[in-house]
Amino acid sequence: MTRVFNFSAGPAALPESVLRTAAAEMLDWHGSGMSVMEMSHRGKEFIAIAAEAEALLRELLAVPANYKVLFMQGGAIGENAIVPMNLLRGHKSADYIDTGEWSRKSIKEAKKYGGVNVAASSADSGYTTIPPRATWKLDPEAAYVHICSNETIGGVEYAEPPDVGAVPLVADMSSSILSRPVDVAKYGALYGGAQKNIGPAGLTIVIVRDDLIGQALPITPSAFDYKTVADNESMYNTPPTYAIYIAGLVFHWIKERGGLAAMEAHNRKKAGLLYDYLDSTAFYRSPVARDCRSLMNVPFKLKDDALDAAFLKGAEARGMVQLKGHRSVGGMRASIYNAMPLEGVQALVAYMKEFEASHG
Ligand SMILES: *Cc1c(COP(=O)(O)O)cnc(C)c1O
């Protein structure tokens, strides 16, 4: 068996030890005589699996007691609708910060349910920056302020959560959740699909302050009403059971490795290696402003895009896959989530040097 270094933006690489555990437990989970996939979500085995996953996630993120942790479905794109349906709470509009493709998708969807004030945008920079906080035109009456913590496509990430005063901050954290510690208390809600940094596609994580729930628009589907989901401990409808189980194994893996502070150190080391090299040569370049470069998704360009195909082919021959950049940005993108080992980034940088030497 040969495993590649998988730089996919999502669904993305999982820790090998997690996959091995899942394989070993596939036919018979802990003497139950069943696969987790075959369990009733209301049986004692699965209830224990889900409770442990939630407890571990709360521990890793130090989630305050007045926040609900919800295991939902529909992905972050689904949440783009579910958030305004639940969190407009009688307000006329919400503020959105436009930092790239994913914020634009959130904005487009929210407009179906209420007013949207785009309080700041970095479109003018080609989405290579985050608009300085001082330039944001926030509405003090807004229901919430929405940001995308890490733009998976553009590779732009907030270094710190912005201060938005008393209005709840809501973040799409799909591609940065669990990459470093987060002060959950600074947010009204945060959400993300699992398939970047947590586990299989199909599970959506939502963490929401409990005073914000219970005022969903009447049109909100019951399965997407945070209050209904919370009151039923994420089992109002059948949850994505196997994805929750794998997420629990990943939470364990993070905890064993020292938690989110250790993850951050590991991720900074990996990203630093790549950015330092990109900045040291004229053959490659990072399009993103230095102060908002993502720790998780690193887009980069070759000085001549006619070499892109040869670069990708050589990478694949060396066991490095999914490096092609998103079509809207072009060039390359290395997604280096928690499960990407340092060796993967070292191998990539070594190959980049080799390619530069032979094509520069
Ligand atoms: C991947 C991603 C999404 C889309 O998630 P789905 O699970 O496909 O709905 C949304 N936002 C961000 C920031 C992402 O990285």
- Gross CATH architecture of the largest domain: 3-Layer(aba) Sandwich
**What value does the average pLDDT take?**
97
Beta-strand residue fraction? 15-25%
Catalogue the ligands. Answer: pyridoxal-5'-phosphate
* Strand line-up across the major sheet: 2-10-9-8-5-3-4
Rg result: 21 Å
Describe this structure in words.
34% of the residues lie in helices and 16% in strands. The chain has 360 residues and is an alpha/beta fold. The chain folds into 2 domains: 17-256, Aspartate Aminotransferase, domain 2 (3-Layer(aba) Sandwich); 259-359, Aspartate Aminotransferase, domain 1 (Alpha-Beta Complex), CATH 3.90.1150. The strands form 4 sheets. A 7-stranded mixed β-sheet has the order 2-10-9-8-5-3-4, with helices on both faces. Strands 11-12-14 form a 3-stranded antiparallel β-sheet, with helices on one face. Helix 4 links the parallel strand 3 (93-98) and strand 4. The structure holds pyridoxal-5'-phosphate. The site of pyridoxal-5'-phosphate (PLP) has 13 residues, from helix 3.
Give a nutshell description of this structure.
With 360 residues, the chain is of the alpha/beta class.
Highlighted features:
360 residues; alpha/beta; Aspartate Aminotransferase, domain 1; 3-stranded antiparallel sheet; globular
